[in-house]
Write a structure and sequence with these properties.
CATH architecture of the largest domain: 3-Layer(aba) Sandwich
Distance between the termini: 38 Å
Largest sheet: 8 strands, mixed
Order of helices and strands: HEEEEHEHEHEEEHE
Shape: globular
Mean pLDDT: 89
Radius of gyration: 18 Å
Number of domains: 2
CATH topology of the largest domain: Glutaredoxin
CATH superfamily of the largest domain: Glutaredoxin
Number of strands: 10
Helix content: 25-40%
Number of helices: 5
Length: 205
């Protein structure tokens, strides 16, 4: 009985610790209304890319994604569709792979190049090589999206979270969070839903 009590207590402590770590990771990132720093990361074409390169952009759909997460893979066609719909309107997709490829070999730069070519990515697919960008944003999942609006003060975070409300079935989606956010910004309106819970795989460190 004493052993069971000790094991139960240990399980509770571990559970609380896990919650605390997850909470810290989220709390340390950008909030809606914050100014997001620019970055310079390697693209699959071998060139360094930053937000500042997009001189005519009105904002950005910064998407943390990868090759190996089934959630991220399931959303790839929808991410491609977002770029095709909004890049010409001033809101291009900027995809960033945040995982450590030593831990997740399927997310190496070579594999990223293959994936981008096979899927016909129309947007940059960047590697967060030193894993310094995703913690600033507070990204915890793949996929995890941050819609930024370019202003005179900098790139303001306007939406954080999921792409839509159904990761399993694109045809069953009822609310397109990212589309609604960008549509509102293009109209000069308030984003209707500023934050949702990202659903996906945890980022591998």
């Amino acid at each position: 009985m004493k052993t069971i009590k000790i094991l139960s207590l240990l399980a509770l402590i571990i559970g609380m610790s896990a919650f605390t770590v997850a909470k810290i990771a989220v709390d340390d990132g950008y909030k809606v209304g914050d100014i997001a720093d620019d970055f310079k990361l390697m693209n699959v074409d071998g060139k360094m890319v930053s937000l500042a390169d997009y001189k005519n952009a009105k904002g950005y759909i910064v998407t943390f994604t990868c090759n190996t997460c089934p959630y991220a893979v399931g959303y790839e066609d929808r991410i491609i569709a977002l770029d095709k719909k909004y890049a010409s309107k001033g809101y291009p997709v900027i995809a960033i792979m945040p995982n450590n490829p030593d831990v997740q070999p399927g997310d190496s730069m070579e594999k990223m190049k293959e994936r981008a070519q096979n899927k016909g990515f129309t947007f940059p697919y960047l590697m967060d090589t030193n894993q310094t960008v995703y913690p600033k944003y507070g990204a915890t999942k793949t996929p995890h999206v941050f819609v930024l609006q370019k202003t005179s003060k900098g790139n303001v975070v306007k939406y954080i979270g999921a792409i839509d409300d159904n990761y399993q079935d694109a045809s069953a989606v009822k609310t397109k969070y990212v589309e609604n956010a960008v549509d509102a910004l293009l109209k000069g309106s308030e984003v209707p839903e500023k934050e949702t819970r990202a659903i996906g795989c945890t980022i591998k460190v």
